[in-house]
Each structure stands twice: as structure tokens, then as C-alpha cells.
């Protein structure tokens, strides 16, 4: 059979990544036909390590603009398709094998392949937080990166929604203040922020627990009426959490409910409502929202952040608590057992099991 494999350029921007770059490049062995590395000012052994993998290394003077750096990297690619990764990303063995199959069998009509990006994990290594990113694109389309910070790839044309996952491992070298500093510099220069800029600036303020300014910026973002629906939902969740931090319960409830203006209820917000009413000792209301979370079907076309626990074990664990407080111990036990199927070693689940077996007289049966 003829080999219909596409050719792939891996394009990366790096700086001081000596601790992670080899791990990343080893994990994609066999996938890229060329590796393009753009260094934005390393002072460690990053370049020395990278030279073992490629001689296509370019310097780029850092100008506080991630899109500019990524576009420069893309401009140096020469293969059919471009794959992009960060230095602290990897492909797990299974995903690498699936990617190699994709390379041989990709529909030639496809201009874009998006993939889940796994960002957080529990103690068992199960992904707890993910979103989708456009990850592999046809070079001839000249797609461009947009945005100085939290940049995105502007694409169009036929898209393949792949199940191949990119795993974010993180790095001890991460500068948690970098993005916030860039936004603050832009604000000081008097730049007009787009709705997307406002959203990600608010996220940086939120992450740094600058709650009041985060609230103001999220509210300004929502007032534009121009936000992507997933960003609107995320802003509602972050606003609710900011008000929870500040002890403003009415405002917390207001923004949980506001999420329903943008989309049908998601499990994440049902769990937020359940937790709100559980904390208020309104157990019937708490149970209602947790139960609804268990009945929802996770949207398959959502590109926004997904908290897996809210779609699997967490509402069952919390239903156990609500039903126990209501004296409905058999229902409590039933939902704890469902949670146990997802999390058999969870200490809270095991505690509930022992406690409820005692209450129900099941301990010696």
C-alpha cells in the first residue's frame, strides 16, 4: 500500500527550558519530520539540549507578545502541517501511537486537528481538568496567532475533532507573574483591551487572588456582550468564587444563576448550587442540584474547561452527604457506592461507607 503520510513541522517557542525540553521532544519521537525551535532568550542549557534533536534553532527578541513569537516559529516551518507544543507538554505513549496512526491516515481535506489538552490530574493520574486546542494545522493556510497573552490560533475550514491528548506536565520554572505583568504594562500604556483581553486579564487577577479588581474586570467583560459563550460561563464561575472568598453569599448565588443565561445548566454549576445550599443547610435544595448534575449529559462539542469530577463522582458523594443530613440513609449509601465505583480509594468515600454500613446495620452482614 502507498504511504499517504503527511509531513509535520513541530514548532515551539522556548526560554530556559532545560528541565523539560528533552522530555517533550522524546515524547513525540517519530511524529515531526522537522523541529523548529524559537528561543526567546534562554540563559541556561536549553539550546545545547535542543541541538541534539534539531539544527533549526532561531532567536527571537522577546517583546511581551506570545502571538508574535509563535507566528515567527510558524513562518520557519516547511512541512505539510504544523504541530505546536510547549516545552512542558508531552504525549503519553498511547497518544503518541495514536498520533502516528493519524499521521498516516489523516483525511487530506482536513485543515485543522484539535485535541484535548489535559491540564490537571488527581492522585491516581486521572485527568480532572481539560479543554480543547487547535493543535495541528495545514501550513499552506497561513493561519495566524492572535493575542499578546493567552494567544489563540485563528483557523477556518474542515476540522477534525481528535481524541489524541496532549498532556501538560508543568514546570518548576513557571513564572506565575509573567502574564499579569504583561497585561499591567499594556494597561499602563493605555491600550484598549478587547473582550478576550478583559477575560484573560481578569483570570490573571483571579489567580493572584486580587479579588475586587478581578470582579470589576469580569463584570466589564460580561457587559461587552461579545464574549465567547464558554468564556462567559467561566467568568460567571470565577465571579461566584470571588464573592465566596469575600463572604458575599447573595452575589455568589447571583453569578451562579447568571450562568443559565448563557447555556443550559452544566454539571459544574449544578454542583456549585448544590454546595451553596448544602453550606446553607438547605439539604433538599442541595440534593436537587446535585441530583440534576448526575442526570446531565456532558456536551461533546464543548471547547471550554471541563471539571471531570462534576460529571462523574463528586455529585454522588455530595448527594450522600445531603441524604444523610435528611435522614435518608439508604439513598445516601446508594450514592456513596456510585461514587466508590469512580473513586474506590477515596478516603471520604470509604469513611462514608463504614459510617453508613453501621447506621444501616450492614457492617456484620
Automatic annotation (TrEMBL):
Keywords: Transferase. It comes from the Bacteria. GO terms for molecular function: transferase activity. Transmembrane segments: none annotated. InterPro entries: Glyco_trans_2-like, Nucleotide-diphossugar_trans, TPR-like_helical_dom_sf. It holds the Pfam family Glycos_transf_2. Residues 9-93 form the Glycosyltransferase 2-like domain. This is Glycosyl transferase family 2. The lineage of its organism: Bacteria, Bacillati, Bacillota, Clostridia, Eubacteriales.
